[in-house]
Amino acid sequence: MAARIKPTLISPSKGKGKVIKKAAKLAPLQTGPIFSRLTVVWVNENGVAFDTSAGYFARLFRGTTIVSTSSFDRFGVVRFNNITTLTNSIFTIRIYRISDGALYRTRTIPSGVETFAVIG
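The structure corresponding to this sequence follows.
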């Protein structure tokens, strides 16, 4: 195995040790949630979002009380505009088909999240 060679810096100061360019300061790390509202993605087991253009909606429950209802977009994403993140409660999400109201999935969303994936 050949040894790695460090590239040399060719500066206009010709080795006099002058600063060529000051390093830019890095932005601080993200300290809060990126998504301001609870967002749920419905994906298959390979992680690919379902095509929900046929019409699906989700109901979000806290215990037995309906907290929010929202429709999926055609890319398998539903956003609950009245649920801020990070969530502070445990929710149950139920996914229904619009045409006949058939229940497709039921999942529990833990507290302290901003996004959630329903797999399968």
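The longest strand covers residues 77-84.
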